[in-house]
Write a structure and sequence with these properties.
Strands 3-2-4-1-5-6 form a six-stranded mixed β-sheet. The protein has 266 residues and is of the alpha/beta class. It has a domain of 160 residues: Phosphoglycerate mutase-like (Rossmann fold, 3-Layer(aba) Sandwich). Helix 4 crosses helix 5. Helix content is 31%, strand content 13%. The protein starts with 36 loop residues before the first helix and ends in a 5-residue tail after the last helix.
């Protein structure tokens, strides 16, 4: 998938004015609420699914799911750019995981709307157990059999003391379902993490979650938009979009997985 599936504004992330062209989000009537938008969209609930901004460990290729690392200055800038992009959208509520990097990103996004982020522990990042804080090459060297099983199927395998992708999906999906039900017909933002978001998207779209690490990317402070007719039926409108701070999608880097780095050996 590419960064420009569809857009709630122009391609650089600027919102289309009221009554603007296709893809624009209708604004509430004066004195109305975000729920009024459901009238214009046939009671569609719009979900802004957001990854937190870059962190102080982002460039070190470490497993840092449960480590409560903070945003870097770069990450704060990315989050501010996203907050400016979404400032004119009628966001009814902002939810986030209980980790520092998502709490701060969510606060930046929520500020223009006068909202306070609502933490939900089920939205936290995957826990890599005894791999936490280690680089991938270190994990491969110290826990070779575990890492091979993880590469083969990260959805059902969990490192010692950690979580499988299935476990993450089992705790995150009910949280999002509740959010969609509470805010039916409105627009709501959820700030979460790379693995958690990829697993949620795979579930919403009926994709094989065993390939979530290899086939789905999430850049720091990226925006995904999903429209829901109910908590089960979802349509992806935008995926991994960073046009609020970058002119083009980033190219895939190495160190994603052995499947990506050396596909001929897979």
């Amino acid at each position: 998938m590419t960064n420009s599936v569809s857009h709630a504004g122009d391609w650089r992330g600027r919102s289309v004015a009221n009554g603007g062209g296709p893809g624009s989000i209708p604004r509430c009537r004066p004195g109305g609420s975000a729920r009024d938008l459901g009238y214009y969209r046939g009671m569609t609930t719009r979900l802004f699914l957001i990854r937190h901004g870059a962190t102080t460990l982002a460039a070190e290729d470490r497993f840092a799911g449960s480590i409560d690392v903070e945003l870097s200055e770069e990450g704060r800038g990315q989050a501010r750019a996203l907050g400016e992009r979404l400032a004119d959208d009628a966001i009814a509520a902002v939810y986030c995981s209980s980790m520092k990097r998502t709490l701060e990103t969510a606060a930046i996004v929520a500020r223009p709307h006068g909202l306070t982020p609502i933490p939900r522990d089920g939205l936290r990042e995957i826990n890599h157990g005894r791999w936490e804080g280690l680089r991938r090459v270190e994990v491969e060297a110290q826990f070779a059999k575990e890492y091979a099983a993880y590469e083969a199927d990260p959805f059902t395998f969990a490192p010692e003391g950690g979580e499988s992708g299935l476990s993450v999906m089992a705790r995150a999906l009910p949280v999002v379902r509740e959010i969609l039900l509470v805010h039916e017909g409105a627009t709501v933002a959820v700030v979460s993490h790379k693995a958690t978001i990829r697993l949620l998207v795979a579930s919403f779209l009926g994709l094989d979650a065993r390939g979530y690490r290899d086939r789905l990317d999430q850049s720091p402070a990226c925006l995904n938009i999903l429209d829901f007719k109910d908590p089960v039926r979802a349509r992806l409108a935008l995926f991994n979009d960073v046009s609020h701070y970058a002119d083009r999608p980033r190219r895939p880097a190495a160190h994603i997985s052995n499947w990506w780095d050396a596909p001929e050996k897979a």
